Amino acid sequence: MKSGFLFSLLLSFLILISDSEAQYHYQGLMNYLESRMVAMEERIALWHEQNNRYTADLKKFRQQASDLLEKLGKDHSKLRLDLEGAGARVDRVEREMDYIETKNPPKPCVKAADKMVEQEAVVKEKKKKEEFFELSVCMDLVSSIRAMKILKRVGSPKGIWTKDARTAKVYIFNGTSEDTLYEFNSREELSTSTGLSKGKQITLPSVWNGTGHAVYDGFLYYVSERSELQVVKYDLKNGSVTDSAVLPVEAQTPVYSLNPETTVDLIADEEGLWALYPAGNTINLAKMDPETLDIEQMWDTSCPRNNAEAAFMVCGTVYVVYNTRPSSRSRIQCVYDVADMVTNDEAPLLYFPRRYGAHSSLKYNPAERQLYAWDDGYQILYRLALKKKLWAIAPLPEE
């Protein structure tokens, strides 16, 4: 009996000890959880503080960006107005310059032999002195392309429009392989014409090929590819062929890689009639007698055919124009002077104004100092600024 009581007392004591240890561990756990909660609350408070600061900085940055964008918008509007005003002033100046140059056209560089056509017979000494005119007067070099004027859009993407320097007549070659061209009495008549309706149709005895034809001193010089590559001289006044010549040129090789239809480019300038033709990977130049079509002299220009689209001549200097495929901005990248007065390194790299596509032809008019360009069916005029070449041949002493 006594032993049972002791056992119960011992069991109660152990249970009491166990409850105390459990309570102690429970209290420790609660203290730990409370400390972690305090730490989390501190971190949340820090996060709120940082978030508020970042939000304030973001609002400040947004306000600054908004103010800056507003200021940029005002500056952009002001700049746009200034550019529009400058464009209007440039257009007005160009119109005034066109009017002044129309009233007072510049005297073209002409050969003495051409000049004598309009004069009576002169004494032998005077004639000898004027023969030097051919060597000394035409000393011009293209320094810049001053202005572009779009006259009209008519015809195919490729073609030619050109003007005889001695008359006001304008000629349209629509396409790259036809037998009919159109003659207009003036640029004004062409600009007011509905299509080509006002033009006089001229049907040639053979098909012309490419875009390398020239009108010079009342005659049309065009390229015809029959069994052989021929240059045909056609009298525009009488409507008859006066001469023809076979050119020793490969008919399947284009002179400009970007205009594969053109194998020979006939060019007229102050010095006479010229022909550009392919020779391997470069372009060669030949001086032609406009009366007999004989080749008088030939030069290797070293200008590459690759990426060339057209060329023109001023005062015996060839300017080859290059582009890319697809078309970008045309540029004069190769220059060759037959008198060796200008080297390719000395000539400036000139860019044409941005336009529609690529030039299929460029024809220079020495009386107007303008280029007649055909660009994706648009008839465009480029006004050239000229300067004197680096040195000139001194005149011979009078006898």
Q: Strand sequence of the main sheet, in spatial order?
A: 1-20-19-18
* Topology, number of strands: 20
Number of H- or I-type helical stretches: 5
β-sheet strand percentage: 35-45%
The quaternary organization reads as: single chain
Unreliable residue runs: 105-136, 392-399
Shape designation: elongated
- Radius of gyration over C-alpha positions, nearest whole angstrom: 42 Å
The biggest sheet amounts to: 4 strands, antiparallel
Q: Mean pLDDT score, rounded?
A: 82
End-to-end span in angstroms?
A: 170 Å
H/E element sequence: HHHHEEEEHEEEEEEEEEEEEEEEE
Alpha-beta content class? alpha+beta
DSSP helix fraction: 25-40%
Summary?
It is built from five helices and 20 strands. The protein is of the alpha+beta class and 399 residues long.
List the helices and strands and how they pair.
Layout: H1 2-103, H2 112-115, H3 124-131, H4 133-136, E1 140-153, E2 159-163, E3 170-174, E4 177-184, H5 187-192, E5 200-209, E6 214-216, E7 219-225, E8 229-235, E9 240-246, E10 265-269, E11 272-279, E12 282-288, E13 295-304, E14 308-314, E15 317-322, E16 331-337, E17 350-351, E18 359-365, E19 370-375, E20 378-388
Features of the shown structure:
399 residues, alpha+beta, 4-stranded antiparallel sheet, 20 strands, elongated
Q: What do these coordinates show?
A:
Helix content is 31%, strand content 36%. A hairpin with a 2-residue loop joins strand 11 (272-279) and strand 12 (282-288). 30% of the residues are buried. The chain is of the alpha+beta class.
